[in-house]
Specification:
The complex is a heterodimer of chains A (about 120) and B (about 250). With about 120 residues, chain A is mainly alpha-helical. Chain A has helices at about 5-25, 30-50, 50-60, 65-120. Chain A is about 90% helix and about 0% strand. Chain B is of the alpha/beta class and about 250 residues long. Chain B has a single domain (about 1-250), classed as Spore Coat Polysaccharide Biosynthesis Protein SpsA, Chain A. Classes of the chains: A mainly alpha (about 120), B alpha/beta (about 250).
């Protein structure tokens, strides 16, 4: 792990913290959703400060270069996050669909009742 | 599921002892409509004039044209979705309404005039006589399927369904389906229960009885079909993945 990469890791940690704080200040993100990004920040910070972690893990897993271990971990985490996001979007769509349907049915029933009252 | 079918059977047996022989089924015709301003009056007026024994409801799926306005002017039964949900979501709205209001069966009916209401009676009769959960208005039950690219997809689906669900459906892509109370709750509340061949195949595999009745369909007179190449490929991919890969893994009643 070169010094350059360590600096990049530190910058990533700094930026993710900054972005999250900005979003919270502007009330554009829920606290519970910041946890993932704070964990990323802490992880990259730790790797930037103590690159020995990457060396140790790479050795343990039989990966030749510690930097490959860093890439691998990041790719894996991102894939996982995208998958979770897809699931959440699916569920959100389902909820919006149900809400829309219920609103429309509710309105229709109200209209019907109004119509019945007029006839009476 | 089985319990429901048994209940229904009991219910129908009780009914059939009455003098009419068969109890009248309360049927709701669901007409999903997206940009059908040119067709909707013709379709609904025909139902009101000639087939007033059935209830109907138009589901306007956030149309960009005057579909909703026209329906209001004519005082049609209209459930007006505030945003566009797509065919499956629009149809499900009608199913939910039918399920909440105690209908015995709902009919999926096109808003573009392709379906002909004269066959509804035949479909209801088939449902009652054969105690079916789903009756499909089939273009190719007695008649042979024409060749050509357009029918290739339907043919692939037919044999795929035969392979996974054990029984072939002659016209899986027909959009004219009568759905019995016994499976209405699934269609109304479950995820991935769109009005498509994969749902029919899935329910069939899980013991639902699917029956086909020969019908004729018209070519659409106005408006445009959304079956272009891109949509066809997406549709087929979705159907095949659902039928081949996921069907066996899906949890019943969840």
């Amino acid at each position: 792990m070169t010094l350059g990469l360590r600096i990049i890791l530190l910058v990533i940690a700094l930026f993710s913290c900054a972005f999250v704080i900005r979003k919270i200040r502007k009330s554009q993100m829920r606290i519970e959703d910041t946890l993932f990004w704070l964990a990323i920040a802490v992880g990259t910070l730790a790797l930037g400060i103590f690159p020995q972690i990457a060396f140790w893990c790479a050795k343990l897993l039989g990966i030749q270069s510690p930097v490959n271990f860093v890439y691998l971990v990041f790719i894996f985490i991102l894939l996982f996050k995208v998958f979770i996001l897809t699931v959440q979007v699916s569920q959100l769509q389902e909820r919006i669909k149900n809400l829309t349907q219920n609103i429309a049915i509710y309105r229709y029933k109200n209209e019907q009742e109004d119509g019945d009252e007029k006839i009476e | 599921m089985l319990y429901l079918i048994c209940l229904l059977q009991l219910y129908q047996d009780n009914g059939s002892t009455k003098e009419t022989g068969e109890i009248e089924m309360k049927v709701l015709i669901i007409i999903p409509a997206y940009n059908e301003a040119e067709n909707i009056v013709r379709v609904v007026d025909d139902l009101i004039k000639n087939y007033s024994q059935y209830d109907y409801v138009v589901i306007n799926d956030g149309s960009k044209d005057d579909t909703a306005k026209i329906c209001r002017e004519h005082h049609y039964n209209l459930i007006d979705l505030p945003i566009n949900l797509g065919l499956a979501g629009a149809f499900q709205t009608g199913v939910k309404y039918g399920y909440q209001n105690g209908y015995d069966a709902v009919l999926q009916y096109d808003g573009d005039g392709q379906h002909q209401a004269v066959y509804i009676e035949k479909m209801i009769a088939a449902m009652q006589e054969q105690n079916a959960d789903i009756v499909i208005g089939s273009r190719f039950w007695e008649k042979k399927k024409p060749g050509g690219l357009r029918m290739l997809g339907a043919r692939i689906l037919k044999y795929t369904i035969k392979f996974t669900a054990g029984k072939a459906i002659a016209d899986p892509t027909s959009g004219m389906r009568l759905i019995n109370k016994s499976v209405l709750k699934d269609f109304a509340t479950q995820m991935n229960h769109g009005p498509e061949p994969d749902t029919v195949a899935y329910l069939m595999r899980n013991g639902a009885k699917v029956v086909e009745v020969q019908v004729e369909m018209k070519e659409r007179i106005a408006g445009e079909s959304y079956l272009n190449l891109k949509n066809s490929i997406l549709y087929m991919s979705r159907m095949l993945v659902s039928i081949i890969l996921f069907q066996g893994f899906r949890k019943r009643g969840k």
